[in-house]
Amino acid sequence: MGNVSAHQKGAIMGGVAPSGAGQARRLWRGLVLAICVTIALPALATGRLVIPFDLDEYDRPIVDLTLENGVTATGVLDTAATLTLIEGRTAHAVGLSPVEIRPGEPQLITVLGLGGPEDFPLLKLQSLSAGNVHLGVLNAALDTSPAVEGVLNILPVSVLEANVLDFDFRKETLTLYDGSPNGRRSGRVCKTDLHEVSGLFYVDVEINNVKGRALIDTGSSITYINSHFADLSNTVTNKEKTKQLLGLTGEEYDVRIARVSTLSLGQMELTRLDLLVSDPALFTYLEFQDQPVMVLGMDFLSHFRMQLDRRNDSFILRRERLDCLICSTAHVSRID
Fold first, then answer.
1. Within 13 Å and on the Cβ side, how many CA atoms surround 135?
2. What is the pLDDT of residue 118?
3. Residues 54-82: pLDDT tens digits?
4. Long-range contacts for 207-212 (Cβ within 8 Å, ≥24 apart)?
5. How far apart are CA 285 and CA 116, in angstroms?
6. Which pLDDT belongs to residue 244?
7. Is pLDDT at 332 greater than 50 in this prediction?
């Protein structure tokens, strides 16, 4: 897979509003946030920071954000974004105005979404906080799309400075620290190479023994492969499920469901999967359309504790839940 150039930064998967979480979940998140506030100074001293989140109805991590002037908002904690995105109502509440090249002419910045590149006005944030993580001045894009109920801000994981990004989806926390990833070796079900390219995180995968690369995307609710990967790996279309899908999405969408015999990720092997096949404009813009590429979304990732070890270029999964929507059968080789 070719490198992503600097002007190709900002792959953002759009968001919708989080569903109403249960009382227990809200109490847990409030407790975690309270602990973060009360131990903020020790956490900073030891280099360990915590961002609590809620998993919404699509299993995406939704965080509480505090911007300048004390304005609060929510956003998606996104591993497949490299630029902070602020929606219009939040920007208005904060009193933010776009950076201007000259009076009346905003400076534009390119943001990548599934539909391809789109230019947005540039913002300068003076402060942004989540949990006990406090960011200084940073660039952001102003989402100028028409105001739609449910559109969220985006907080890219790439702006967080730490050697280890430790997502515990069961406890609904992201912990940032240096050193080695926490946890017993016996609890690992996968350890493989991590590739961080222009702020995006990739891992090597195999489908039916054909090698490819997967984008780690906590902003995507689903896992899918591109058609090139599906063709190279000789997948077979599941006609019944494809018909059901087209009945929901409409015939104009070029999507299908492919039967995958095996999906290998490090020492973990999943068998007998049905995966969505899709070719978003984003892949074409990044010149990935002729390469075997897939996206690992939250229907897969949320069933594990996921650790991104930047210093050692390692991707680690620890099993947290027994059920997995796309894991019909899983076999894990021993990790020495």
1. 24
2. 87
3. 999 989 999 999 999 899 999 999 999 98
4. 207/233, 207/235, 207/260, 207/262, 207/263, 207/264, 207/292, 207/294, 208/233, 208/234, 208/235, 208/260, 208/261, 208/262, 209/233, 209/262, 209/264, 210/234, 210/292, 211/292, 212/291, 212/292, 212/293, 212/294
5. 6
6. 84
7. no
Q: Which residue has the tokens 């940073």?
A: 138
Question: What sign for the dihedral angle of Cα 301, 304, 309, 314?
Answer: negative
Q: Please give the C-alpha separations between residue 309 and each of 179, 204, 221, 272, in angstroms, as whole numbers.
A: 9, 15, 23, 30
Give one DSSP letter per residue of 92-115, joined into a string. Answer: HHHT----EEETTEE-EEEEEETT
pLDDT tens for 71-125 read: 999 999 999 998 999 999 999 999 999 999 999 999 999 987 777 788 999 999 9
d(CA 191, CA 325): 21
Task: Please name the residue that has the structure tokens 């900002």.
Answer: 10
Q: Walk me through the domains of the chain, giving residue ranges and CATH numbers.
A: 6-159 (2.40.70.10), 183-332 (2.40.70.10)
Give the tens place of pLDDT for each residue, 157-173: 999 999 999 999 999 99
- How far is Cα 296 from Cα 200, in angstroms, rounded to an integer? 13
Closest C-alpha to 71, from 87, 90, 53, 52: 90
CA 205 to chain CA centroid, nearest Å: 17
User: By the 8 A CB rule, do 282 and 219 touch?
Assistant: no
Single-letter code of the amino acid located at 266 = G
Complete DSSP assignment for 192-244: EEEEEETTEEEEEEEETTEEEEEEE-TT-SS-EE-HHHHHHTT-EE-HHHHHH
Q: How confident is the model at residue 283 (pLDDT cuts 50, 70, 90)?
A: confident
- C-alpha to C-alpha distance for 264 and 280, rounded to whole angstroms: 23
Residue pair 145/89 in contact by the 8 Å Cβ criterion: no
CB atoms within 10 A of CB 10: 26
Strands 224-225 and 329-332: unpaired
User: What Cα–Cα distance (Å) separates residue 116 from each residue in 48, 146, 252?
Assistant: 36, 18, 18
CA terminus-to-terminus distance, the chain: 28
